[in-house]
Amino acid sequence: MKTPPWLSLAREIYTLSQAGLAYSKNDFDLERYHRLQEISAEIISGQSKLEKEAILESFAIQNGYPTPKVDVRGAVVRDGKILLVQEVTDGCWALPGGWADLGESPLEMVEREVREESGMLVKARKVAAIYDANRVAPLEFYHAYKIIFLCDILGGEPTASMETPAVGFFDPADLPPLSLFRTNQRILDEIFAHLADPARPTSFD
Fold this sequence. Notes:
Blueprint: H1 5-23, H2 27-47, H3 52-61, E1 69-78, E2 81-86, E3 93-94, E4 97-99, H4 106-118, E5 120-132, E6 144-156, E7 167-170, H5 185-196, E8 203-204
Parallel strand pairs: 1-6, 5-8
Antiparallel strand pairs: 1-2, 1-4, 2-3, 2-7, 5-6
Helix pairs in contact: 1-2, 2-3
């Protein structure tokens, strides 16, 4: 999905302002960088349903030099069916996973996320894909990368959690509504391509 010009400009202005706030010690420069954040927030507010104040509050939470977030997802297949969890936020379905936490390796994160969200105990064995998450709708303001791990089942049974009210294995030809920002058809096609060809190299943007 092509990023609209207004969003590209707003991101660039925000990124420059955030880097300036992280490194500048000059009060006058800090004032200018805060004004750049206001301009970025005004652009976003003018093109969306978000309030400027809420956008600025979100900006204030982001500290330090701006870098992409990381979303880890576990691909678990049993008898040709893919493990999906229902997201409480939108009622749609996705691969188990989520934002990476500090202090864990990518492998540890994805194995924990799969266990907590689905009840399945798995071992991550291969990175199938690394994608630019901002190329799919709905477009997010903060940049993110998505890492898809192929996982082998060690044990467990599909079990719902506080974040995922339903869990199940689905035939790829009969999928429930997908939470597309989290998991889309391109991701699922790549997973099954890796399963069909174990020597297939990692896909990446």
